[in-house]
Amino acid sequence: MNWSLPFPSGRQPVLARNVVSTSQPLAAQAGLAAMARGGNAIDAALAAAITLTVVEPTMNGIGGDAFALVWDGSQLHGLNACGRAPQAWSPERFAGLEHMPKVGWDSVTTPGGVAAWKALSERFGALPFEDLFTDAIRHARDGFPVSPVIARQWAQAAIDLGAQPGFTEFLKPDGSAPQTGEIWRFPAQADTLQEIARTRTESFYRGALAQRIAAFSQTCGAALTADDLAAHQVEWVEPISTPFGDRTVHEIPPNGQGIAALIALGILEQLPYRDTAPGSAARMHLEIEAMRLAFADLYAHIADPAHMEVTAAQLLAPAYLQRRAALIDPQRAGSYPPGQPSSGGTVYLCAADAQGRMVSFIQSNFKGFGSGVVVPGTGIALHNRGMGFVTTPGHPNQVAGGKRPMHSIIPAFMLRNGQPHMAFGVMGGNMQAQGHLQMTLREAVEGLNPQACSDAPRWRINDVGALTLEHTVPAAVVEGLRALGHVPEIAPPNSLDFGSAQLIRKLDTAPGEPSAYVAGSDHRRDGLAVGF
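Structure (tokenized):
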């Protein structure tokens, strides 16, 4: 592993036996405090995640979804806590729309994240469930100073979502968002978290909180009902994976976009990728082209697995990936239709402990605050995952009642020679799959340490296919990409379009020694890694 820091960030990697890396310092500290109280990595991840709903509401909330990959010391487990569309939704409800609504009640699916907290705690946690809420409730009740990045996102949300039902709960009395350094308190959110903790989430899905959510939905003429909430269940899943050299990268299977990162990695394994120079236009060109191919398949084929016409195994088959790789011209940018295999605004965090447990966890309200709908008097901001469906008749991801949408949030985990190696993730819409690709390549091929992996300049293919580069990409590389036929745009220095990466990599220790780790966090937002 290369311990140098070739990219500007102003921070060093964190080395410790117990580590938490999150997108917000107060949440990282909450996770570490849980460990100090006798908790393990799973407790730390949950304490951090619950705290993030308070201190970074611009990226996640109580009304979102969650996914996790957990190494329990001997085995990797996957959790899909994604909620389903209200049973009353149908293709006819959205007929005539080119795209699904992006905000409002018609973008709200059943929130699954709260159920994820309980499922992970019951299966792997060491602390009492209520203990995990200690810091989140304190920050909501006593208040916390809003950081610059969050204040900027909050101010934009006030403009974009201010007219949505209940959103004024997240604004000051004058209708504005809190400014940088201002103390934000939300006692109603503290009460809600206390109720969730006291009832072990039962109130949220079948009790008083569920009734308040359903009643507000009915008042607004929306489709989500108490029965939709009561029917929600998490699913323990077998992670999908692809080999990459001596590493194996694992993702949650569809309905998530993680398979796109695996497809791109599998394509690069078929190309002379390692023969290109680190940071060069030739190397970045192959990465971008592989990702374009992966996205073509993602948007054509991935949906609720019960409705997919092809399987994840078919999309990851070496022979299929070889055929897809053959479409790439090393000398020229291209555009790609989906293949046909043979028949046959989010928060990310990770945690690890001295006993060898590692957690890769992600939760989100999707686009910033999500739908903009906030249940009055609760602090429950509901996500807008419904916009992940399509309205195209016959498409496997066409909207329908009781169906899971194609999902953007994805945790990642890497094994090396069959042993746990790195928990990592990159938040930010469709940046996540391409972020996983870039983190894997920086670590597995270029040998960078986790902080340098996070700091390295990134590229992004946006939702309409345009290529954007961070302003730190060298000018020679930009010109090299243009010469290969790319038309990159350069993002401004304060752009948040490239997500936020957190990574924890396991260090080599002597047999019988407690585990130790090195962690990195993202300087693009408020990321912080802490340990002891």
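The chain has 16 helices and 21 strands. The two ends are 22 Å apart (CA to CA).
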